[in-house]
Amino acid sequence: MSELKLMKGNEALAEAAIRAGVDAYFGYPITPQSEVIEYLMYEQPEKRTGMVVLQAESEIAAINMVYGAASTGKRVLTSSSSPGISLKLEGISYIAGAELPAVIVNVVRGGPGLGTIQPSQADYFQSVKGGGHGDYKLYVLAPASVQEMADFVEDAFDIAFKYRAPVLILSDGLIGQMMEKVTLKPQKERMSNQELIEKYGSWAVTGKTNRQRNIITSLDLQSEKMEARVHRLMAKYAQMEKEDLRFEKIACDDAEYLIVAYGSSARIAQKTVELAREKGIKVGLLRPITLFPFPKKQLFELADQVKGILSVELNAGQMIEDVQIATQFKVPVEHFGRTGGIIHTPEEILEALEQKFIK
Amino acid sequence: MEIADIIKPENKVFCKTALMTDTPLSYCPGCGHGTAHNLTMEVIDELGIVEETIGVAPVGCSVLAYDFMNIDITQAAHGRAPAVATAIARCWPDKYVFTYQGDGDLAAIGTAETIHACNRGENIVIIFVNNGIYGMTGGQMAPTTLEGMISSTSPYGREISSMGSPIKMTELVANLPGVFYATRQSVHTHKHARKAKKAIQKAFENTRLKKGLSFIEIVSNCNSGWKMTPNEANIWMEEHMFSYFPLGDIKVDGKLK
Q1: Nearest residue on chain A to B53, judged by CA atoms?
Q2: CA angle, A279 as apex, A277 and A280 as ends, to 5°?
Q3: For residue B117, which of A49, A118, A286, B1 sits 20 to 30 Å off, Cα-Cα?
C-alpha cells in the first residue's frame, strides 16, 4: 500500500530502497548523508525483506562491496557525500568498466578538501564528466524534492539494469536534510535467487553450472578488446542520450530570459520565476532532471528564443560550461551561485539576473 | 602395442585438474602460482562444489587467475578482494566464496579490507600467496620483502630503519576473533603441496559449516623477481623465507596454537 509520510530526504531514499526490493546496501557514515545508513540499520530490512545492510570500514570498502554484490546480479546501493564519493571513484570506474549495474547516491557538501558539511552542488564536474579514471560516464539523476529522493531509487535501478551501468543520484545536503511530505510506494518483493539466475545468468557470477563460466573484470590486456569495450560503453551512453534524457520546463513558452538549474537550485529558482513574472520580467526555468544525458537540444533551441541564460548552481560555475556548449554561444550565458554552504535566495537570483542581462 | 591400448582407466597415474582451463599459464616457469591454482581447483572439484563457488581474483601476477580457473569469478580492484568477497558472501550465504591474493594486494594496499573482513569473521576463504615481492610490476619491494633483500625499489637491500619490517599478516589476523583458521603453507615440494591441499580442504569445509574466515598463507617463490633460477629460488626460500615466515598452523578451530 502507498503511504503518505513526513520524512527527511535521506530517510525517504532509504525507505524507498527497502520498498523497491533492493538486495543490499553498503555504506560508511559521513555528514550530511548518515541518516541513510542510520535509518536502514534501525529499520532492520533484513527482517522486512531480506535486504543486506552493512557498515563498511571505509567508503573504498563500501564501493568494492557494491562491486562484489553487483557482479552477482544483486540490486545494490551505496550512499555517501562528496569526500566519500572521491574515495569511491576508483570503484565506480571499475563498476563502469566491468559493466555492472549499481546505484550510488551523493548527498553533496561543499569542497574542495574536507570543505564544509553544508549543502553544495560543487560535485557537478565530478559527476557528469566521469570522475574516476578512464573513458566512462555515469547516468546522473538530480532530485529536487524529498519525493524525488524516494522515486529516483527505483528509476535509477531500472536504468542501471537496462544498461548494466552505474547510476548516480546526485542530491545535496539541502534535499537530503529537509523534511517534506512524501508518498511511498507499496513494498515490492525482492527477486528470488532462482529468478535472478534465470534473468542474469548470461553474465552474473552465481556459481558455474552447466553453462560457460562467467567472468567479471574490467581488464583487457589486448588493445583491440579494450577498444571494443570502450566502444560498447560509448554505445550505451549514446543510447541513454536518445532514450533516457529527462528534464522539466517551467514557464518557458514565452520566456525572454532562461534560468538553468538542477536539484535544490532548481527548487529555489522556481520561486525566482514567480517573483520575476510579478515584476513583468518573463523568466523561464529549464531543470535538467538528468545531468547526463544533458538537455542539449532543448537548450540549443531555447537559445534562439531568449535574450540571456543564467546558470544557477550552488558552486563557482560548473554546469555553465555545458550550457555554453549546448547553446553554441548563440546567446549570453552567465553564472550565479553561492558557495561555502550558503544557499542563494530567490531574490538574490532575480537580482543577479537583472544585473547581468537587464540593467 | 597401440596408444589406445595404453590409454585405459587402470593405467591412469595423473590427469589435468578438471577445473583448470586449457589456457597456458602466464606465470614464469618455476613460479608457485600454478601449483596453488591447481590445488585450489582440485579441492573445489573433489568437494563437488563448483556450482556453489564464486572466486575473487586480485590485482598482481594472479590478476588473470580467471583465465586459468574454470569457475565463476570476479576480478577485484587492487587490494579490495576481501570487501568484494564480503558482499558476495553476505548476499549469497550458502555459496563458497574465496579470494586469491598476493602480498602487495593483501598486505599493502588492501590491509584495511583484509583486517576488517577477518575481524567481521566473514564466511570466506582467503588464499594469500606471499613471495616477498611485487612480481607483476617488475620486482618492487613488498610489505613482506625480507630485511636486506634486494628489489627494484630497495636496490641496496630492505633497510628496516627506513622501510620497516616485513609484515607477518597471518599472525596478525590470527589474533582477530573472527578468524577461525589461520595457517601458513608452501607448495614447492610434493610433500608441502599435499599439506597445503589439506589446509585448503579444511578451509572450504569451514565455509560449509559457516565457521567464519579461513586464512591460508602460501609462502612462495619469485625466481624472476628474486633474479634466481627456479631451483635456487626454492633453496633460498627454504633458507630465508621459512625462518621469518615459519610454516604450520597458527590458529585451528578458533584456537591459537
Answers
A1: A207
A2: 60
A3: A49
Measured between CB atoms, does B7 come within 8 Å of chain A?
Answer: no
Across residues B107-117, what is the average pLDDT? Answer: 98
- How does pLDDT run across B75-87, given as a tens digit for each residue? 999 999 999 999 9
CB spacing of A65 vs B116 below 8 angstroms: no
Interacting residues of A334 by C-beta distance below 8 A, sequence separation 6+: A308, A309, A310, A311, A320, A352, A356, A357
Q: Is residue B41 part of a domain?
A: yes
Give tens-digit pLDDT for A65-108.
Answer: 999 999 999 999 999 999 999 999 999 999 999 999 999 999 99
User: A60 and B80 in contact by Cβ < 8 A?
Assistant: yes
Disruptive mutation site among A64, A100, A221 for chain B (greatest number of B CBs within 10 Å): A64
Which chain A positions have a beta carbon within 8 Å of B112's beta carbon? 57-58, 60-61
Contact present, B125 and B96 (Cβ < 8 Å) = yes
Residue B70, domain extent: 25-256
How many interchain CB pairs under 8 A, A with B?
A: 122
Please tell me the distance from the alpha carbon of residue A18 to that of residue A14, in angstroms, as a whole number: 7
Partner-chain residue, chosen from A61, A68, A94, that has the shortest CB–CB distance to B88: A68
Chain A CA closest to residue B96: A207
CA distance from start to end of chain A: 53
Q: Which residue of chain A has the CA closest to B99?
A: A68
Give the residue on A whose Cα is nearest the Cα of B57: A217
Tell me which residue of A337, A357, A340 sits closest to A349, measured CA to CA: A337
3-state SS of A22-44? CCEEEECCCCCCCHHHHHHHHHC
Any CB–CB contact under 8 A between B47 and chain A?
no
B109 touches chain A (CB under 8 A): no
pTM score, whole prediction: 0.97
Question: In this predicted model, what pLDDT tens digit does every residue of B195-236 receive, in sequence order?
Answer: 999 999 999 999 999 999 999 999 999 999 999 999 999 999
Average confidence score pLDDT of chain A: 97
Amino acid at B17: T
Number of domains within chain B: 1
Say how far apart CA A248 and CA A72 lie, in whole Å: 36
pLDDT digits (tens, 9 = 90+) for A183-204: 999 999 999 999 999 999 999 9
In a domain, B7, yes or no: no
Complex prediction ipTM: 0.96
> Which residues on A lie below 8 Å from B26 (Cβ)?
none
Instruction: Residue B85: name the closest of A205, A86, A192, A95 by CA.
Output: A205
Instruction: Say which CATH number the domain at B93 has.
Output: 3.40.50.970
Tell whether B134 is covered by a domain. yes
- The shortest CB-CB distance from B91 to any of A23, A94, A209 is to A23
Distance CA A175, CA A111 (A): 17
Record: contact B50-A208, CB cut-off 8 A:
yes
Contacts of B188 (CB under 8 A, 6+ apart): B32, B35, B220, B221, B234, B237, B238
